[in-house]
């Protein structure tokens, strides 16, 4: 494959990925409203289309036509840039995530991934941590007390939990010996004694790392029980209090896109990626890996929503103590133990 | 897959530019087609209907700065551990002991800030009463 074809194929894959991601974001919002509705003994959206399925579309149109206020007390360049930064970082981080094996379409053999980089995981970590700028700048540039408090809380919380998140991945890196997401997934092929899949979550105490990752990821994406940056009961809406119309919606798009990215990374690192039972005809064998991957991501997203419908919010001092005094030492202990086991075996 | 490593990063750039163009277009479109009828009450900072007092450029807790500094220290630690983790299988026990020394030094600092009360947000520091 020469360079021109490669770039053309990548551009096509990028467009498809962005469309799929935006649709997925819209329908994750729908799923959340529906599931949380049922948890709270309500119906959720029902009016727009069958089962309220056209609700995301209606919301999008509504956001477009809403009054786009830019209050005079804000610092305008950053106020406008903040939602764009948040959403661009959230949408870009999906680009190195592989969703399946290589496929051949029209004689071209290409991976189901926009680009296969050998430092894929580092790129995801780098881009998602840029996302904190969107939140921090939104809080500061709004020049409103609620926004400032929300932005400060959000940035302190996101940087605190990013350390535990980063350290929890080291166990997986030790086991796989690579930064490439594709190689990390390939290292999880096969099974123990023929029936327990060789996913990292079942391997060498990595269930602890999975727990740390899960908790930190919830805090990173500002979701319940760590949604203090936008704690409605005390801060109105936190860092996006002063935003309206599409700029407001973009923070939501960024949040849900980040949720999807986090679920994809969790699936790739801990739940064996696209590995799962393969059976049936040749066509089915091609499709099944992608199906298993999407199923695992869906389960992860469902747990996200389930947790939101179940748990109350942390207090701020509890949040900081939990992150620094519990998760961080636990992550260090996990990486030392995993390192010891691997070093002794090799 | 081209062998040139630089070319492999081009799709990332394309993706970034497309996402940026999309975000910019959405913001512009919403600004163009949304109506605007600002009133004095609408454009004042939102404080639940109370008339705002001053603006938000005041002072805030120094703890947020401390957390930012600690983040840099510990994130650099994590970044140092990444390359080590990838090649641990080649380094074997030697690499493990070397890194244990490094983690030990970091942990000494960690327990120092813990004892100093930097990580306690609930009550003001008992020792000096400032943070």
What does the model show?
The complex is a heterodimer of chains A (346) and B (131). Chain A is mostly helical and 346 residues long. Chain A has helices at 3-39, 55-65, 76-92, 120-141, 145-176, 181-186, 206-220, 232-235, 245-269, 282-310, 316-345; strands spanning 102-105, 108-111, 191-192, 196-197. Chain A has 11 helices and 4 strands, in the order αααββαααββααααα. Chain A has a two-stranded antiparallel sheet with strand order 1-2. In chain A, strands 3-4 form a two-stranded antiparallel sheet. The longest helix of chain A has 37 residues, at 3-39. Chain B is an all-alpha fold. Chain B has one domain (5-116): Methane Monooxygenase Hydroxylase, Chain G, domain 1 (Up-down Bundle). Helix content of chain B is 66%, strand content 0%. Chain B is built from 4 helices and no strands. Chain B has helices spanning 5-33, 40-43, 63-86, 88-116. The longest helix of chain B has 29 residues, at 5-33. Classes of the chains: A mainly alpha (346), B mainly alpha (131). Chains A and B meet through helix 1, helix 2, helix 3, helix 5 and helix 9 of A and helix 1, helix 3 and helix 4 of B.
Strand percentage of chain A, roughly?
A: under 5%
CATH topology of chain B: Methane Monooxygenase Hydroxylase, Chain G, domain 1
Total helical elements of chain A: 11
Span between termini of chain A:
38 Å
Whole-number tally of structural domains of chain A: 1
**Biggest interface, residues from each chain:** A-B, 85 and 73 residues
The global form of chain A is: globular
Instruction: Summarize the helix and strand pattern of chain B as letters.
Output: HHHH
User: Please, what is the average pLDDT of chain B?
Assistant: 81
User: What share of residues of chain B is helical?
Assistant: 55-70%
Poorly predicted residue ranges of chain B: none
CATH class of chain B: Mainly Alpha
Number of strands of chain B: 0
Helix and strand pattern of chain A = HHHEEHHHEEHHHHH
Provide the residue-averaged pLDDT of chain A: 85
Annotation, overall tally of beta strands of chain A: 4
Percent helix of chain A, as a range, is 55-70%
């Amino acid at each position: 494959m020469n360079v021109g074809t490669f770039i053309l194929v990548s551009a096509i894959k990028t467009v498809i990925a962005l469309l799929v991601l935006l649709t997925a974001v819209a329908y994750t919002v729908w799923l959340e409203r529906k599931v949380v509705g049922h948890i709270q003994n309500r119906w959720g959206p029902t009016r727009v289309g069958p089962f309220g399925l056209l609700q995301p579309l209606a919301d999008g149109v509504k956001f477009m036509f809403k009054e786009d206020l830019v209050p005079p007390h804000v610092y305008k360049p950053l106020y406008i840039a903040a939602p764009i930064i948040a959403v661009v970082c959230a949408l870009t981080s999906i680009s190195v995530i592989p969703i399946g094996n290589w496929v051949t379409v029209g004689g071209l053999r290409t991976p189901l991934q926009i680009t296969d980089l050998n430092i894929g995981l580092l790129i995801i970590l780098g881009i998602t941590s840029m996302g904190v700028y969107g939140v921090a700048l939104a809080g500061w540039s709004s020049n409103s007390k609620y926004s400032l408090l929300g932005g400060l809380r959000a940035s302190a919380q996101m940087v605190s939990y990013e350390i535990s998140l980063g350290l929890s991945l080291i166990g997986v890196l030790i086991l796989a010996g690579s930064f490439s997401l594709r190689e990390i997934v390939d290292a999880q092929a096969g099974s123990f004694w023929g029936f327990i899949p060789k996913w990292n979550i079942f391997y060498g105490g990595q269930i602890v790392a999975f727990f740390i990752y899960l908790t930190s990821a919830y805090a990173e994406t500002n979701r319940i029980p760590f949604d203090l940056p936008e704690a409605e009961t005390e801060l109105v809406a936190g860092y996006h209090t002063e935003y309206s119309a599409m700029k407001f919606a973009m923070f939501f798009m960024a949040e849900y896109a980040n949720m999807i990215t986090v679920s994809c990374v969790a699936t790739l690192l801990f739940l064996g990626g696209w590995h799962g039972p393969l059976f049936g005809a040749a066509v089915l064998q091609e499709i099944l890996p992608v199906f298993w991957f999407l199923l695992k991501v869906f389960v992860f997203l469902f747990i996200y929503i389930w947790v939101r419908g179940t748990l109350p919010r942390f207090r701020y001092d509890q949040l900081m103590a939990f992150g620094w005094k519990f998760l961080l030492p636990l992550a260090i202990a996990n990486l030392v133990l995993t390192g010891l086991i691997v070093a002794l075996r090799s | 897959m081209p062998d040139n490593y630089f070319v492999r990063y081009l799709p990332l750039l394309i993706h970034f530019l497309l996402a940026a163009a999309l975000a910019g277009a959405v913001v512009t479109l919403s600004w163009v087609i949304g109506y605007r009828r600002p009133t004095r009450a609408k454009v004042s900072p939102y404080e639940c209907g109370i008339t705002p007092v001053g603006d938000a450029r005041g002072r805030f807790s120094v703890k947020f700065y401390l957390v930012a500094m600690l983040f840099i220290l510990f994130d650099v630690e994590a970044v140092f551990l990444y390359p080590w983790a990838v090649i641990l299988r080649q380094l074997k026990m030697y690499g493990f002991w070397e890194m244990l020394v490094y983690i030990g030094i970091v942990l000494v600092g960690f327990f120092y800030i813990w004892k100093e009360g930097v990580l306690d947000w609930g009550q003001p520091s008992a020792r000096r009463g400032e943070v």
